[in-house]
């Protein structure tokens, strides 16, 4: 089944403790992206990657890092999480330019930083 | 930059028709997507418009007017399972690799 897999689904952590949210897709998509979703603010893009070893900042990149060493994986790294990073996170992938089908989203990771 | 505006919430009766509007301002328009998102779940693709006019897919239709920077999603024969947030997303070829920018979503509540 074609899908984007994120882990973990839920995570509660403490301020300053480094964490990684994994994202993997099995559709051979070149393009991958991370979004956060907050009430009243909608989906905001954190980082995106156009292909292996090519990453760029989205609209809200502060406090996040990403890497793209392999085509299928695009982990999101929070080196020193803070409470304002409590959010619902989505990984998404697509063909270049999204084609006519847009993004395929992962199931989401609900992160709480205390 | 981009500015995407959607009304926040509406309530409709099962079996009815509801129209969800989206207005946008963007310098390099290259397509508009509609997504459905149930609470706490991932958005799922509904429709795509790049040319003016109406695209119909079963109970859902989407319309685009590029000159007005306007789109709507029409949901017919509403069912309880249609209770969800509906997101409008605009693709801009002037934003790295045609990135999508999302509106804040419109919450539709279907009542019996």
What does this structure look like?
The complex is a heterodimer of chains A (114) and B (112). Chain A is built from no helices and 11 strands. Chain A has strands at residues 4-7, 10-13, 19-25, 31-38, 42-51, 54-57, 65-66, 76-78, 87-94, 104-105, 109-113. In chain A, strands 2, 4, 5, 6, 9, 10 and 11 form a 7-stranded mixed beta sheet that branches. Chain A has a 4-stranded antiparallel beta sheet with strand order 1-3-8-7, with no helix packed on it. Chain B has 112 residues and is mainly β.
Major pleated sheet of chain B:
6 strands, mixed
Q: Please write the string of helix (H) and strand (E) elements of chain A.
A: EEEEEEEEEEE
Write down how many β-strands of chain B occur, each being a DSSP E stretch of 2 or more residues: 11
Average pLDDT over all residues of chain A: 93
Estimate the strand proportion of chain A. Answer: over 45%
Regions with little confidence, pLDDT below 50 for 5+ residues of chain A? none
Cα-atom radius of gyration of chain A: 13 Å
**How many DSSP E strands of chain A?**
11
Overall 3D shape of chain A: globular
SS element count, helices of chain B: 0
Rg from alpha-carbon coordinates of chain B: 14 Å
| Helix content estimate of chain B | under 10%
Question: What integer is the average pLDDT of chain B?
Answer: 90
Helix proportion range of chain A: under 10%
